[in-house]
Write a structure and sequence with these properties.
The chain is mostly helical and 169 residues long. It is 35% helix and 6% strand. The chain has 6 helices and 2 strands. 16% of the residues are buried.
Length: 169
C-alpha cells in the first residue's frame, strides 16, 4: 500500500481526521516502524515542513505568504504543502475572498504546537549567543511564554535519567 493511499486526505471517510490511522502500520517506508519519534519525523521532520507549520501557527495561509516568510524554493514549498496536506497536518479551503485556496492547520497540525514550542525554547538556550537578538513568543496578553517542562503523573520533573522506552516485544 502506498503512503498516499492511506492518508486522511486520500480517504474521504477520514478527510480532515488528521491522523495516520491504523492502516499505517503496514507501510514499508517507515524509518523505524515501532518508534513514534521516527514516524513523526518521517511525516514532519524536515526543516521546511516544520517552518511551514511554524508559519501556519503564526497566521500564514497562502502559498505566497509561506514563500515570503520561509524563503524556500517554490518547488520545495509546493512539495511540502502537498505532503503536509496529504498527511493531515494542513487542510486546504477556499479563502474568504473566494478567489484562491488557503492552507489551515488541522487538529493534527495544531497538536504540533508543543513540538514547535520545545524546538523554539531549545533554540533560545542553545542556538543564540548571550544577548543576541531573537524573536520572542508571547501569549495573548503580550507576556513571554514560560519554559515548558515534562513532568510525571506525580508532578516530578522528567528527563533522560528518569524515563526509558519500553520496546515492542
Amino acid at each position: 500500500m502506498s503512503r498516499a493511499s492511506s492518508t486522511p486526505a486520500a480517504n474521504p471517510d477520514r478527510a480532515g481526521e488528521g491522523r495516520a490511522g491504523p492502516d499505517r502500520g503496514a507501510d514499508p517506508d517507515w524509518t523505524d516502524p515501532e518508534c513514534p519519534v521516527a514516524r513523526a519525523l518521517d511525516l514532519v521532520g524536515d526543516r521546511w515542513s516544520l517552518l511551514v507549520v511554524r508559519d501556519a501557527m503564526d497566521g500564514a495561509r497562502s502559498f505566497t505568504e509561506f514563500h515570503r516568510r520561509t524563503g524556500v524554493a517554490r518547488n520545495i514549498l509546493t512539495d511540502r504543502l502537498r505532503k503536509l496536506t496529504a498527511h493531515g497536518v494542513l487542510a486546504q479551503r477556499t479563502a474568504a475572498s473566494g478567489r484562491r485556496q488557503e492552507y489551515v492547520l488541522t487538529d493534527a497540525g495544531r497538536d504540533l504546537f508543543l513540538v514547535v514550542l520545545a524546538l523554539r525554547q531549545w533554540g533560545e538556550r542553545h542556538a543564540f549567543a548571550p544577548g543576541e537578538p531573537r524573536s520572542t513568543l508571547v501569549d495573548e496578553h503580550g507576556t513571554p511564554v514560560p519554559e515548558v517542562t515534562a513532568t510525571g503523573a506525580d508532578g516530578t520533573p522528567l528527563g533522560t535519567g528518569t524515563t526509558r522506552v519500553r520496546k515492542v516485544q
